[in-house]
Amino acid sequence: MPDPQYVGSFIPLTQTWDVSEIYTTDVSSPAFKELLVRMYQNINNMAMVINTKDTGIYPTSEFVNSQVWFPNPAYDSSTPQTATQRQVFRKVINFGALPNAGTRNVAHGLTFDANTTLTRLYGAASNPAALAYIPLPFATPTALNANISLSLGLVGPIPSVIVTTGIDYSAYTVCYVVIEFIRN
Known about the structure:
- This protein is an alpha+beta fold.
- It has two domains: about 1-55, no CATH class; about 65-184, no CATH class.
- It has two helices and eight strands; from the N terminus they run H-H-E-E-E-E-E-E-E-E.
- The strands form two sheets. It has a five-stranded antiparallel beta sheet with strand order 1-2-8-4-5, with no helix packed on it.
- The radius of gyration is 24 Å and the shape is elongated.
């Protein structure tokens, strides 16, 4: 299991059993049964650690990313729903170029309702010609009109990613926005 001095989930780098025992232990002996139990426990520990890791996959379709949030606090013994851990979904929006001192909207194709909670919304933009990169949202204390806001909302009836810039950022032609959310 994870080393208690580290935060997070880690698989041990050293084996907790000697694989040479497989060849030397009599299959009808209690020692062999103990070896099988230790192997099973080791595999179970690895599965538990792997299953708690955030998946480093960023698809343009809705994806369960292996993050897990606490149970919905509205659920208790008096509600018909069971209080269980909630899976986090991820979707990447290939936003394209940032706007020139204005607002640009790109449909994200997700259906949000009262049972959906946004957990993270972030992105980054690249200016390939200048080798310049900025995070989204972006704030600069030196030029307030140079800030960039990032949000989700309805543009007319269409659920969209909304980026608003105070100055011309259209040279930032590669922009990805990551949406992460849970469904209660």
